[in-house]
Specification:
This protein has about 200 residues and is mostly helical. About 75% of the residues lie in helices and about 0% in strands. The protein has helices at about 5-25, 30-40, 40-50, 50-75, 80-100, 100-105, 120-145, 155-175, 180-200. Helix 2 packs across helix 3, helix 5 packs parallel to helix 8 and helix 6 (about 100-105) runs antiparallel to helix 8. The longest helix has 27 residues, at about 120-145. The protein starts with 6 loop residues before the first helix and ends with a helix. The relative contact order is 0.12.
Length: about 200
């Protein structure tokens, strides 16, 4: 259990970690880098978070909340439910393009977690972040189903959106953009609209 330190110090450490993972992959960052940026001793990080994976999990949660607000700001509340879903997907793809390392860490649910580098508490935190994204997508999918714009199970359709989202974001990190966020969002919405007919054929 980490020792208690002040909320202000914890916040400063978290912000430094957020800045770090916006710029480079988490595997390329060590606690000393974050401590120097936060103007604290390396031991302060372990007093606040226990280990660097807990720190990155906390920082990524904060990034996700900031990104969620950026995505939310792109959505027109007066648009149809399906259009709001398209705008949401487009926003997610822009985040993946513009903040690649943070997006890869957050939206791909902390790859190092699944390589045995973190304990069960951090693994659960990572799963919570992924669930947060899928829940947001499912809200829009369910609204489109209720409006008669989509057919199918909201949970399954949201999971399909999440799988495609992770793939697009991951590819955007290593490959020059050949398909714009607008184009890919339109492709996904078109696929969702046609899925029910394909499954019943």
């Amino acid at each position: 259990m980490p020792e208690t330190i002040s909320d202000a110090t914890r916040e400063r450490i978290t912000r430094a970690a957020m800045d770090a993972i916006r710029d480079r992959p988490p595997v390329a960052i060590n606690a000393q880098d974050v401590a120097a940026a936060a103007d604290v001793s390396p031991s302060a990080i372990y007093k606040a978070f226990g280990n660097k994976y807990e720190l990155f999990a906390a920082a990524s949660r904060e990034i996700l909340l900031e990104q969620a607000q950026l995505i939310r700001d792109r959505v027109d509340d007066d648009a149809s439910p399906l259009e709001r879903l398209r705008q949401t997907l487009e926003g997610v793809f822009y985040i993946g393009r513009d903040e690649p390392f943070a997006a890869a860490y957050v939206f791909c649910a902390f790859p190092m977690v699944y390589h045995g580098d973190a304990g069960p508490d951090v693994v659960e935190h990572a799963r919570d972040v992924r669930a947060f994204l899928i829940e947001g997508l499912q809200i829009h999918v369910a609204a489109a189903i209720d409006a008669g714009e989509l057919n199918g199970d909201a949970a399954m359709l949201a999971e399909l959106c999440a799988i495609d989202t992770f793939g697009y974001v991951g590819r955007s990190i290593t490959t020059p953009e050949n398909v714009s966020p607008e184009q890919y969002a339109a492709f996904m919405v078109a696929g969702l609209k046609n899925l029910a007919a394909e499954l019943s054929a």
